[in-house]
Each structure stands twice: as structure tokens, then as C-alpha cells.
Amino acid sequence: MKKTGMMVLALLAWCGAAAQELSFGEFFHDKTMRFDYIHCGDSRSEHFYFDELREELHWAGSKRSLRDTTGYGSQFFRIVDAESGREIYSRGYCTLFDEWQSTVEALAVQRSYPESVVFPYPKRPCRIEIWSRDDKGRLVKRFEQAIDPESYEVVGFTPRLESFEVAYHGAPEHRVDIVLLPEGYSEGERAKFEEACREFAREFASYSPFREQFERFNIRAVWAPSVDSGVTIPGEGIWRNTACGANFYTFGSERYQTVADQQRLRDLAAHVPYDYIYVLSNTQKYGGGGIFNFYGISAAHHPGRTGKIYVHEFGHLLMGLGDEYVDPLTFEGMYPKNVEPWEPNLTTLTDFKRKEWAKMIDPSTPVPTPDTDQYENVVGVFEGGGYIAKGIWRPWRNCMMNNLHRADGFCPVCTRAIEEYIDFLCR
């Protein structure tokens, strides 16, 4: 895991003083700045290299919840006003590089990934800082750079693609705005993609708590046809020229479908106001992926379980819910057993009492909790989660973040975390 850096996070907006309201209009224009960078390294180190500054037309985020107070994310970035030294925007997030660092390959190989973060367009000079967690779970500053929003080197945006609304419920600043992108739909398959978008909205709205919260979401789509129809499946020798460049078999996992170049997705998404990018993949093959504040992707045409895949991956994308199933071949080293995970639905019992989950357990329920029928539909602490069978615990026997075959929805712990994060985004 990450080893470099010396400065421990002690001044970010997780304390009471940082909760003071900022005036959006004092610091920002009503549009987006995008900071592109290259994230690279191996299992023991990471580096950030500036790529480009870009201007995007729309700002879809809250104009009140400007500083992140949640503590979610393996990465964190903050925008600091140069004149006053005040933090004026911040967000936690995760990246594909973070996950790759915990793989066996990262022990011997160095890799790079194109990444980016977005924030309201600053009115005056500022700096960006990027932080990531060390092997003790502490956020450490890895990178900083000055930003001049008036620089002629900021790349402008020219719309070139068509977009359409799927579900609209109100002004973007008070909604969670999802943009749907097409992966592997050829020029003649627009109608198929449009129906997949409508099906996404229907399925998304059928699962609690998104069903009850659906009017707090907007869903739009961008039409970007691929040269080839279908998706890339390296393990089967199938390669396709597609709009998003996704592939299955990420890190050797057959069902893990991802996009290595996140900047490519932002280029497409920028045609509409958006908070979250979700890619609909033109395949029946089961699988997908979701990365907090980064993007989500899944099969749009899997027979039978498409809706469950959507909401499972959106649980990752929205606010970083952790996987509760066991798959040691994928990410054995992702969760050190002496570090409390930041995810609200996983624990190593290292610092469990600080989690909201701990307050939701009935005093009569043993901790850890036996994984037996006696404790079905009971909030407890069940061993097995975060891809490994021992040393990590989950709150529910069969939540949507664990077993899509048995689960019909999210557990009370995940549900509460989702609802609270939607409140944060929609202020």
C-alpha cells in the first residue's frame, strides 16, 4: 500500500471550524474546472504528474456542500484560495490505481493511469492539493500545484455530441445528477442504448432507498457511438474499438469491467451537467465495477439481474460502500487488519465504535455476530467482507453489497449511509 509522504492530514474540513458556510458566488463561477493528471507508481509508491486544466460548461454540484466532511475515500483533494489560504472546495474519492496497488502485479510492475478531478471554476488564483491514505489509513499530502483560472492554457470545451434527458426532477444544484454513457453501441444501435437508459432509470427507481429518493435525482445521457458493437473481453480474445475503451478481466477478475482512462469518460460526460458517470455496457456478460466519485459501469443487457448490478455498483460510486463478499484472489491486501476501513459498511473492529453502524446494533446482539439463521435480518457484525473471509466484518448477512442472488436490497447500515450522503449532495 501507499508509503510515501510525511504530512499527516490535520487541517482538512473534518472538524467543526471547517463546517462554516462559504459563499459560492464569492469564490466560483457557475461552471466546472477539470484538473487532469497522471497517477502512477507501484505497490510501495505513488506519484502525480500534471496533465491539463480544462473548462467545462456546467456545474451540477451543490453550491452549499462545498467542503467534504464525510471522511470517505482513499484519495482526497482540496482547493485552497491563494489570497486567504481558505479551503474553498474538497472531495474524497477513489481510483482504479488505488485498487491496482493492492494486486500482486504491483509488487513488480509500475503503471500509470490518466485521472482527473472536477470542482467549481475558481474566480481567482488557488492551488490544488491531492492527498491519499498511507498504510495506517491516514491521509497524507502527495501533490500540490498552483492554478491560475485566467491562464490561456486552460483548454476550452466544444460540444460535439448529442444528449437527451432520461429523468428530470429539478435544478442540478439540488439534485444528484447522473450521466449515462454508451459503451459498445455502434452507430445503428442508438435506439437500443436509449431503451437501456430508460431501463436503467426504471430499475434504479425500483430499489430502496433510491425508490424513495428518486425525485432527488436527474438522469441524462450522451450519445457517443462506437466503431464496433460489443465489448472487449481479453480473456476470450475479444477486442472491440469502443467509445469508452472498457474491458473485462481487470486485474485478472473475469467479471470486473473497468475503464483505465477516466479522462476519456469526462470528455464525453462534459456535454451535460453531471455529478456521477455511469457507463452502460452493450453486453449480456455479467459484471461491472464502481469506484467512489470516479465512475460506474455494468452490463446493460444481462438477463435477470441488470437492476441489481446497477444499484450494487452505484453503492460504490455514490459514497464508497465496500464490497461485502469474499474474493481473496482479487484484492487480498486492500484492507490491512490493523486499520479501520473508512467505508461505512466494513470494519476490522480496530476502531468500530466511531462508526454510525455501531450505534445501530441492539445490545442483545453479540459482537462479532454468528452468521446463522437466528440473526437473519439483524444488524450485527458478521465475519467475511472486503474480499477476505477472516478479519473483516460486515453489518448484514446478505446485503446488496454482498450477495446479489439472495439480497433484495440494502441493509439498514448501507441505507442510512446512502440517505445521509444524498442529503449532503442535495443541500
Describe this structure in words.
The protein has helices at residues 24-27, 96-100, 190-204, 210-213, 262-269, 306-319, 328-331, 412-426; strands spanning 28-42, 45-56, 75-81, 87-93, 111-122, 126-133, 139-147, 162-167, 176-183, 217-223, 246-247, 258-259, 276-281, 288-291, 295-299, 382-385, 388-394. It is α+β, with helices and mostly antiparallel strands. The protein has three domains: 16-147, Sandwich (Immunoglobulin-like); 162-320, 3-Layer(aba) Sandwich (Collagenase (Catalytic Domain)), CATH 3.40.390.10; 328-408, no CATH class. The strands form five sheets. Strands 8-10-9-13-15-14 form a six-stranded mixed beta sheet, sandwiched between helices. Strands 4-3-6-7 form a four-stranded antiparallel beta sheet, with no helix packed on it. Strands 2-1-5 form a three-stranded antiparallel beta sheet. The two termini are 35 Å apart.
Quote the beta fraction: 25-35%
- How many helices? 8
Q: Judging by the overall fold, what is the CATH architecture of the largest domain?
A: 3-Layer(aba) Sandwich
Give the biggest sheet: 6 strands, mixed
Question: What name does CATH use for the topology of the largest domain?
Answer: Collagenase (Catalytic Domain)
Alpha-carbon distance between the two ends: 35 Å
Multimeric status of the protein: single chain
How many strands?
17
Mean pLDDT over the residues:
93
CATH superfamily heading of the largest domain: Collagenase (Catalytic Domain)
Shape: globular
Integer count of domains: 3
Rg, Cα atoms, Å: 21 Å
Structural class: alpha+beta
Give the helix proportion (percent range): 10-25%
Give the uncertain stretches in residue-range form: 1-19
CATH class of the largest domain: Alpha Beta
What is the strand arrangement across the widest sheet?
A: 8-10-9-13-15-14
